[in-house]
Amino acid sequence: MKQIMIGSQMVAYEVIRKKIKHTYLRIVQNQLIITTNNTTKEEDIRKFILKHEDKLHQRLTQEKKISLYSDQFLELFGVQIPLKIQNGKRNSLKIIDNLAILTCTSQDVVFKVMERFYQKAVIHESEEFIKSLSLETKKLLPPDGIVIKSQLMKSRFGSCHITKKVIKLNSILGRFDMKYLHSTICHELVHFKIKGHQKDFYRKLSSLDPNYKQTNNELKKIVQRYEV
C-alpha cells in the first residue's frame, strides 16, 4: 500500500487499474482508492490526489460518526444508561435500578435485541404522549384511533399512512430527548387533516408545537452525527 501526505496526515492509497478512460477517487475506511487506466503514470496519480487535497483533508478529518449501538451503554431518550450483556436462553433487554441488562442467546443478536427495544420504547412513549394530548388536538385523529409502528429509517423521522390509520416513527428517536419524538408525532398527526406541507399545514403544526422548526433543525444536526 502506497502513502501520500494529505495536509498533516499520511494517508495510504491503493491503485486499481482497469480499461477505463478517466481516473476516479473514493475513500474507504480512511484510505484512498484510486481507479484509473492501465497506462496512467504514478506521478499523474499523485498529482490527481493532490489536486483534491483540500476536500480530501476535510473528509478525512471529519468527526467519526457515532455507532447506533454500543456494547457499553444504552442511550434512551437523552439519558445514557450503563449496559450489561449476559448470555441466556431468551433474548431480552430490561432496565433495572438504572442498569440496562441485555440477555441474549448469542453475541450475534445483541444489536437486534437493542433495535427491537428502541422500537418498543418509541411506540410506548408515543402512545403515552398521544393519550396526554388535549381533546381538541385528538380531534385530528380518526374516530377509531390509530396504530403506532416503529422501525429504523435512513431518511425520515416519521410517516403517516392515512388510509391505514398508521403513524410510523423512526426508532432512532428513542435515543434522544423526548421533545424530538413528540415534535415528530405532532407533524404526523397534522397530516391526518392536511396532506401536503403548505402554509395551512405549518400553521396548524405551529399551534401544536410552536418550536417545531427549531426542534426539527436540531434533530437533523444530531442525527448527522450518527452512522445510520
Write structural notes for this entry.
This protein is α/β, with parallel strands linked by helices and 228 residues long. It folds into two domains: 2-60, no CATH class; 109-227, Zincin-like. Helices cover 36% and strands 30% of the residues. It is built from seven helices and 13 strands. The strands form four sheets. A four-stranded mixed beta sheet has the order 1-2-4-3. A four-stranded mixed beta sheet has the order 6-7-9-8, covered by helices on one side. Strands 10-12-11 form a three-stranded mixed beta sheet. The protein is extended. The two termini are 30 Å apart.
Gyration radius from CA atoms, angstroms: 24 Å
Provide the helix percentage: 25-40%
| H/E element order | EEEEHHEEEEEHHEEEHHHE
The count of domains is 2
Q: Terminal Cα separation, in Å?
A: 30 Å
The CATH superfamily of the largest domain bears the name Metalloproteases ("zincins"), catalytic domain
